[in-house]
Each structure stands twice: as C-alpha cells, then as structure tokens.
Amino acid sequence: MVADEVRQLAQKTTQNANDIGTDIERLAEEIRKVAQHIEEQSLEVGTLTSLLAELEGSSDMTAGTSQRTRQLADTLRGLTR
C-alpha cells in the first residue's frame, strides 16, 4: 500500500516537474519575443531620429530661402521706386 502511494507521489512529482519545465520554456520564448520587439522598436526610434534631423535641416533651408526671397523682393522694390 505504501509503495503504491510512493509510486503515485513520484509520478505526480515527475509530471509536475515536466509541467514546470514546459512553463519555463514558454516563458523563455515569450521573453525572446519581447526582446526582439524591443530591438525592432529601438531601430525604428533610430530611424525616426534620423528623419527628424533631416526634416529640421530642410526646415532650416526653407527658412533661409524664405529670408533671402524677402531680401530680394525688398531690393527689387527699392530699385523700382
């Protein structure tokens, strides 16, 4: 009788250990997925930062062109008076 109970307990222990191992594998896979998403988002942030820098440069160029156009218009007005 005791031997059967010990055997059943050993089987339950083995099954629980297997279940824990499966849970750990699933958790490790989810952690890998999260790490991959973080890496992808980091790359996207880097791309966005570069695009924003380019946009800022274009904006500065546009502002400079606008200022030069105003100066040219003022000069032309002065010549036509």
Question: Could you outline the blueprint of secondary structure elements for this entry?
Answer:
Blueprint: H1 2-80
Number of helices: 1
Low confidence ranges: none
Number of strands: 0
Mean pLDDT: 94
Class by alpha and beta content? mainly alpha
Helix content, binned percent: over 70%
Strand content: under 5%
Number of domains: 1
The termini sit apart by 118 Å
Radius of gyration: 35 Å
Largest sheet: none
Secondary-structure element pattern, one letter each: H
Any idea what the shape is? rod-shaped
What's this, in brief?
This protein is mainly α. It is built from one helix and no strands. The chain has one domain.
Keywords:
1 helix; 0% strand; rod-shaped; single chain; mainly alpha; 81 residues
Structure description:
This protein is an all-alpha fold and 81 residues long. The chain has one domain. The chain has one helix and no strands. The radius of gyration is 35 Å and the shape is rod-shaped. The mean pLDDT is 94.
